[in-house]
Design brief:
Elements (H helix, E strand, L loop, with lengths): L1 H19 L6 E8 L7 H19 L4 E8 L10 H7 L4 E5 L23 H14 L2 H8 L2 E7 L5 E5 L13 E4 L14 E4 L5 H6 L5 E4 L1 H6 L8 E8 L4 E6 H5 L3 H35 L3 E4 L2 H10 L3 H11 L4 H14 L15
Parallel strand pairs: 1-2, 1-3, 6-7, 6-8, 9-11
Antiparallel strand pairs: 3-10, 4-10, 5-8, 5-9
Helix pairs in contact: 2-9, 4-9, 4-12, 11-12
C-alpha cells in the first residue's frame, strides 16, 4: 500500500513539475547596434539607457524572446557618416542614421531643415516629421532602397544657434565669415553677403573653430556643452533657427525579415517612445545647457526679432525648392510640406516665414 502511494505521489509530483515549466525555451536574438558617434552623445546614451531596457522589459512580459545586445559606437565599426551604408551592408543590425549627411539618398528627411525659423521645439518637430513619414510612403521607401526598415525619426536638438569666436548680434556680423554646418543648414547662409558654409560633423567643430578653419558654427546648446565649444567659440547668437530632425532609427531589412512579429512590434513601439523621450530630454536640457555654456565662459547674445525676420526672408525658399524636387520625381513633396507646416501651426508655432506661401496652387 505504501509503495503504491509512493509511486502515485511521485507521478503527481512529476505531472505538477511538468505543468509548471514553460512550454518552450526563451529564444535569444542577437542585435548589433551601431553609430559612429561616441557613447556620450545624447541619442546614443539614451539608446543604451532607455531604448534597450524598454525593449528588454516588454519582451520579458511574455518570455518568448530576449535580445543579446551588442553595442558598437564611436567609430569602431563605422564613422558618423557611415551608419547608413553600414546598416545597408549588414555591418550592424540596428543603427542610428544621421540623415543630414545623406541628402541625395534621403531627400525627404530634410523636411524640417528646409523650414527654418518655424519651431524651436524638438518634441513638436519629432512628432510632426514622424507622422509625415507614416502618412506618406516617401520616407520609408527611401530607406527601403537602402535595404533598411524605418522605425522612427529623432530630434536631438532644441534649436540651432550660431556659436562664434567673436561677438555677433546680426546677420551683418556674419557677412564675409566662414560658418561650420552639416548638410542643409549651410544653405541658411545664402542671402548673407560673403558668408561661406564649411561642411563638417559635430565631432569636427571644436577643431575647426580652434584652428581658424571657420569663424562660427551652427549647432545647439546641449552639443556645445557636451563638446566644450565655449573654449573655442565663447559667443552664442541666440537666433532660434529651429529644431531639425537629424536621427532616424533603422533596421537592416534582411535582419528585420527574419525577426518574429512580436519582436518587430516591440521595436516599433519603443522606437516611437524613444523619439519622444530623446526630444523631451533635448528640451529639458536646453536651458541647463545654456547655463553651462555661460559657466564655461560663454556669452549669449539675443537676436532681435526683426533681424531673425530679415535673415529668414533673405534666404531662397528652400522648402518650395525641396518640394518641387520631390514632386518632379512623382513624390508628394508639396503635400508633405503643407501637412508639416499645418501640424506645427496646430501645435502652437507661428513661423517667422510661411514657407508654403510660394507653392503653386
Amino acid at each position: 500500500m505504501i509503495g503504491k502511494l509512493t509511486r502515485r505521489g511521485a507521478l503527481a509530483l512529476a505531472l505538477l513539475s511538468a505543468t509548471s515549466m514553460p512550454a518552450f525555451a526563451t529564444e535569444t536574438i542577437k542585435a548589433v547596434v551601431i553609430d559612429g558617434y561616441p557613447a556620450r552623445a545624447l541619442w546614443v546614451k539614451e539608446f543604451t539607457n532607455f531604448f534597450i531596457p524598454e525593449v528588454d522589459k516588454r519582451l520579458a512580459e511574455t518570455g518568448n524572446y530576449k535580445m543579446d545586445w551588442q553595442e558598437s559606437y564611436g567609430g569602431s565599426i563605422v564613422k558618423p557618416k557611415g551608419v547608413l551604408e553600414g546598416i545597408k551592408l549588414g555591418l550592424g543590425d540596428i543603427g542610428i542614421v544621421t540623415t543630414i549627411f545623406h541628402s541625395s539618398k534621403l531627400p525627404s528627411q530634410a523636411i524640417s531643415a528646409v523650414t527654418p525659423f518655424v519651431a524651436p521645439d524638438s518634441r513638436a518637430v519629432a512628432k510632426a516629421v514622424d507622422e509625415i513619414a507614416k502618412e506618406y510612403p516617401t520616407m520609408q521607401n527611401e530607406f527601403e532602397k537602402q535595404n533598411q526598415v524605418y522605425l522612427a525619426t529623432g530630434v536631438v536638438l532644441d534649436t540651432y544657434q550660431v556659436f562664434s569666436k567673436e561677438p555677433i548680434d546680426s546677420i551683418k556680423a556674419l557677412e564675409g565669415s566662414k560658418v561650420a554646418g552639416a548638410g542643409m543648414n549651410l544653405r541658411y547662409l545664402e542671402g548673407i553677403d560673403g558668408a561661406a558654409g564649411v561642411r563638417g560633423g559635430l565631432t569636427d567643430f571644436y577643431n575647426m573653430l580652434q584652428t581658424g578653419l571657420v569663424d562660427n558654427a551652427m549647432l545647439w546648446p546641449e552639443a556645445a556643452s557636451t563638446f566644450k565649444i565655449a573654449e573655442v567659440a565663447p559667443y552664442m547668437l541666440k537666433a532660434d533657427l529651429g529644431a531639425v530632425n537629424s536621427k532616424t532609427i533603422t533596421v537592416n531589412k534582411d535582419y528585420w525579415d527574419g525577426l518574429p512579429d512580436e519582436v518587430k512590434n516591440v521595436l516599433q513601439e519603443v522606437a516611437v517612445e524613444y523619439r519622444d523621450h530623446v526630444a523631451g530630454i533635448a528640451m529639458d536640457r536646453a536651458q541647463a545647457s545654456r547655463d553651462k555654456y555661460v559657466e564655461a565662459g560663454g556669452t549669449i547674445v539675443e537676436m532681435d526679432p526683426a533681424e531673425r525676420e530679415e535673415w529668414a526672408n533673405a534666404m531662397p525658399n528652400l522648402a518650395v525648392e525641396w518640394a518641387a524636387q520631390l514632386d518632379s520625381k512623382g513624390e508628394p513633396g508639396s503635400d508633405m510640406l503643407k501637412s508639416y507646416m499645418t501640424k506645427l501651426k496646430d501645435a502652437g508655432h507661428t513661423p517667422t516665414r510661411d514657407w508654403t506661401a510660394d507653392l503653386s496652387q
